[in-house]
Amino acid sequence: MILATEIDALLLEYEGRLAGVDEVGRGPLAGDVVAAAVVLDPLRPIVGLKDSKKLSAKRREELSGLIKERALAWSVARSSVAEIDQINILQASLLAMHRAVEALAQVPDFVLVDGNRLPQWSFASRAVVKGDDRVAAIAAASILAKVQRDSELVSLEARYPGYGFARHKGYPTAAHLAALRELGVTPVHRRSFAPVKNLLAEALAE
Question: What total number of domains does the chain contain?
């Protein structure tokens, strides 16, 4: 596990040239997995950056606007539902993070990635467990990714009424599972995930 002193040394050495990366949406039964990468500007600090899950939706929206305005570079990328089903959610998450870093307008000299796995890439990088609470740039990435993904799931509410996407954002809540049983599987559901896979198997067996 990377130590706090190591993180501080990297932030000092690569100030303004270090990207933080995070993804959102590994657990849901529906929707893409979304990743973001951010290079913060040390001359334009943003107060209040932390794990997006610990912020209200309103505060995430506010911070998202500030990040896009003040960061030296930022990007949002994804892996699709089809890719998740084809290569599994872990590999799809790593692919989305890889795409996010590749899409940055400024090529980073170092990358800090939330979690304990790194994508296969040529960037100098370290994985940081609980990085969205330990590194501001990773927290910024988590905020951008969550705001983007949540907005997409809200828009799915209109396309697929009755599933409650605007409320549960695709996560396997009791209401979502009940809607799946009643209304069936949509094109935005991940067929490789057990609850969806089992429903499809039951339908075939009838």
Answer: 2
**Shared domain check, 88 and 42:** yes
The three-point CA angle 185-156-205 to 5° equals 0
- Per the CB < 8 A criterion, the answer to whether 135 and 15 are in contact is no
Q: Report pLDDT for 1.
A: 78
Flag residues of the chain having pLDDT under 70.
205-206
The pLDDT value recorded for residue 202 is 82
Same domain, 39 and 98: yes
pTM: 0.95
| 173 and 146 both lie in a single domain | no
Domain residues for the domain of 195 are 158-205
Task: Assess whether 63 and 138 both reside in one domain.
Answer: yes
